Input
Amino acid sequence: MTDATLTLPAPAKLNRLLHIVGRRPDGYHELQTLFQFLDHGDTLRFHRRDDGEIHLAPEIPGVAMEENLILRAARLLQAENGHRLGAEIHLEKRLPLGGGLGGGSSDAATALLGLDALWGLGLSLDRLAELGLTLGADVPVFVRGHAAWGEGVGERLTPVALDTPWFVVIHPGVAVSTPAVFGADELTRNTPPITMARALQGGASSWCNDCEGTVRVLYPPVAEVLDWLSSRAPALLTGTGACVFARLARESDADRLLAEIAGRWQAFKARGLNRSPLHDVLGR
Output
């Protein structure tokens, strides 16, 4: 790719299932999960610089610039092979912080793939996923760009084909701390492992999120949304939250549900995807 400017999506993800099957000696948790993308997310715009400088705008309130995963991804890619090119990066942020939608991880993956294309590096997805894992456990699934069964801390990925319903996603207005959830004494950490085949055979009606009980206790606004949404459609927490989603068969059903939500919480509708729109744009 030779264009000096690139505009790319950074899609949201949902955890359609999340089991915690153990805790490792290093404190991290062993998970089993199903990742699926949405046709909704952030947008990143890149303009190539020839002086090696990386500039990102705007700043995200509450996130120090040096901790921003987009900047860290860009500098990691520069260091990979001593590249001298830089970039102006503009972030159009739509996904909430602490929402469980993978916004920061998706932004990082889009930065890795986008700058690889913009700078003409030609790195493989395997190598980009390895780099992404150093930034966060969810980054590799966005790099690889396919709905997946995830194990380990979520980085061991097997592509899957999930149903692609409409979803309504509600943000309860609180930011959930992932460390607080995983550090809670009451968190379930011993769900018996299952095979991917069994998870897919069971289907969406049997899928659950082991973090939900703990998040309900720690964040009552999330519990309120879960109770409200579950009375109207099959609903689940994504990741450690705070966002809650409902699965719906038709777009018209999603529109009716959004009309009910209007004025109560922030919400959006989106279609489930098995292939990331980032990969569609880049042709990876």
